[in-house]
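lol forgot to send this yesterday, sorry. struct tokens for the thing we talked abt
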């Protein structure tokens, strides 16, 4: 069965390779989902259909890894690993995120305070490059490509296979919600957990000044007597429970997707905080995939007519990473100058600092701040996104590139390793069939 799965995988990759070598000019990927939140220029390109590369090839229980194809959604990978008592070490928070997307972009979740980001948990991968070759890479084989691929956003090639590290999990988790009135105490507590973990998963939510909730989640073999696991997959909302409960229980499956049902809390912008509308939508449609479809439809008539009846706003959808010693000061500045609430807070460590396009310090934990909303604005378009970039630089952090960036080219390459990137670009895509990183991340090509 396993050998047959590998043979089918090799046939799918060979077909993609032939499609690439048999075409000319610029290339773009055709895929079912995308978690990019930035506009794309409508440039004519050859489409490379990667939708068929969405299979889990093999799970090795003893060695604790899974070989998966690049377009495999984490939802499918989780479904394949949980029956073995295993899960990916980092499971990004939305079902629609793919394994390859989380590697070429950046993926995080609440076990990151133990294991780091998604790319810290991938052991090896195969990358399809512009001339149709498939290059295998790992920390020992083609290390420049392995360490240069994360944060390249498809500008170097496409990951056809990834070997993902797995961890043991139990059926249930006990959640403990602790309230903090000041952020300094919160980040001191998080730093202690990063240094000596007492739980299995860790994240927090900033609701307002003086109101932050830290959630520790730990595995339990069974539920206490007369206790049922909570269900936040339909009429009840997980993010609201953080303010309502001190203790909670979830199955591991529902914990991993606790944020997906309401796209964290962004579903409220679509009216999904109203129970009658949630009832009509139904359990199956309350998820990030549905919300992405609605969001993309909103860019077209007639939903786009809303821009003429609502106040002028700027979309600020960003994730930023700040060294933990600077986290309280960053949050205070963010509240004063931008003021989006709530804010997701996810700590992570950096086990390996060799990833050239997203270099981070290894001597400190970081805090990922996620904030996603519209800001009323009388300023020129892009003002608040540029302000986020300035705040991140002021506090010694890094900004993810999945959403809008306003850097000029000189400033962009101060943030990212241009020499290493251009060396990899010459090796993987010398004729520029894929857009360059700056062109894709800032010019939206």
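and heres what i got for the seq, position by position
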């Amino acid at each position: 069965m396993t050998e047959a799965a590998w043979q089918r995988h090799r046939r799918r990759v060979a077909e993609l390779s032939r499609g690439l070598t048999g075409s000319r000019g610029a290339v773009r990927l055709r895929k079912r989902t995308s978690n990019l939140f930035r506009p794309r220029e409508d440039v004519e390109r050859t489409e490379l259909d990667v939708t068929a590369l969405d299979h889990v090839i093999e799970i090795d229980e003893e060695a604790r890894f899974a070989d998966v194809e690049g377009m495999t959604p984490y939802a499918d990978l989780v479904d394949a690993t949980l029956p073995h008592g295993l899960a990916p070490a980092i499971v990004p928070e939305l079902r629609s995120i793919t394994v390859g997307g989380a590697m070429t972009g950046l993926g995080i979740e609440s076990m990151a305070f133990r294991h780091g980001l998604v790319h810290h948990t991938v052991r090896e991968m195969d990358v399809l490059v512009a001339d149709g070759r498939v290059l295998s890479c790992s920390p020992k084989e083609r290390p420049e490509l392995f360490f240069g691929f994360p944060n390249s956003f498809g500008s170097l090639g496409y990951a056809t296979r990834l070997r993902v590290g797995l961890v043991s999990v139990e059926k249930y988790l006990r959640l403990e919600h602790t309230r903090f009135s000041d952020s300094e105490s919160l980040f001191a507590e998080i730093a202690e957990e990063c240094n000596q973990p007492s739980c299995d998963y860790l994240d927090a939510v900033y609701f307002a000044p003086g109101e932050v909730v830290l959630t520790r989640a730990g595995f339990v073999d069974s539920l206490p007597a007369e206790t049922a696991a909570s269900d936040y997959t339909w009429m009840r909302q997980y993010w609201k429970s953080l303010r309502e409960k001190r203790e909670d229980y979830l199955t591991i499956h529902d914990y991993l997707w606790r944020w997906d049902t309401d796209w964290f809390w962004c579903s409220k912008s679509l009216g999904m905080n109203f129970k009658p509308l949630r009832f009509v939508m139904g359990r199956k449609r309350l998820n990030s995939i549905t919300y992405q479809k609605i969001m993309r439809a909103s860019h077209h008539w007639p939903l786009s007519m809303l821009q003429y009846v609502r106040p002028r706003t700027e979309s600020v959808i960003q994730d930023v990473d700040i060294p933990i010693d600077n986290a309280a000061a960053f949050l205070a500045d963010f509240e004063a100058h931008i003021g989006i609430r709530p804010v997701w807070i996810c700590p992570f460590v950096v086990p390996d600092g060799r990833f050239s396009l997203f270099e981070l310090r290894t001597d400190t934990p970081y805090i990922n701040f996620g904030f996603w909303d519209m800001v009323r604005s009388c300023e020129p378009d892009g003002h608040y996104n540029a302000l986020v970039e300035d705040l991140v630089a002021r506090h010694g952090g890094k900004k993810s590139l999945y959403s809008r960036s306003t850097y000029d080219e000189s400033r962009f390459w101060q943030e990212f390793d241009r020499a290493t990137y251009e060396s990899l670009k010459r090796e993987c895509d010398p004729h520029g069939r894929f857009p360059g990183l700056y062109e894709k991340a800032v010019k939206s090509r």
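The first strand starts at residue 27 and ends at 30. anyway ping me if u want another try
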